Amino acid sequence: MQLIFASTNRGKLKEIEKLFDYYEFRILSLADFDNYPEIVESGTTFFENAKLKAEKTFNHFRIPVIADDSGLCVEQLNGAPGVISARYAGEKSNDKKNIERLLSELKKFETPHKASFFCSAVFYDGQILLSAEGEVKGKIIEEEKGSNGFGYDPVFIPDGFTQTMAEISPEIKNKISHRAKAFNDLKSLIINYWRNK
Asked: Would you say 60 and 67 are in contact if contact means Cβ atoms under 8 Å apart?
């Protein structure tokens, strides 16, 4: 089955390709096309944004789509950065600037800085919308460690670990991460749907 992953994020794409590797899926991303729709993440929840990405991408290419929206939710910041995690430091922000703003916001609070990564993943083929969610709880540390991850991975230590998400091996990360949990569940739903179609 050919699927388009509605993202240009190469870090996310690598994770998704590994998660779907053992099945007969060919995963393309928006970066594989010269022309793809501009998607404004205007939803107020992760699910709304994932659904918006999937529907807009499918309507453009008419190929089944998988999409997600994910982010970091910090207790002391009332769930921020949340759905604006990727642009927390502004529309033209990057991972480094987002982390800098996050750590700056947390300076006024005592440790531990409890947080969670959350992911909403969806599949859409023009007929049916399937969805799944994943979450990993942990804490934010005050200096970056590791180079394996992206986003907020270098400052997030998942519960039960002493290393950040950016220090953990990709093999372990793909077993415990919010995105892995969501897409593994979604993959099962897609396979079941496809077999019974």
From this structure: no
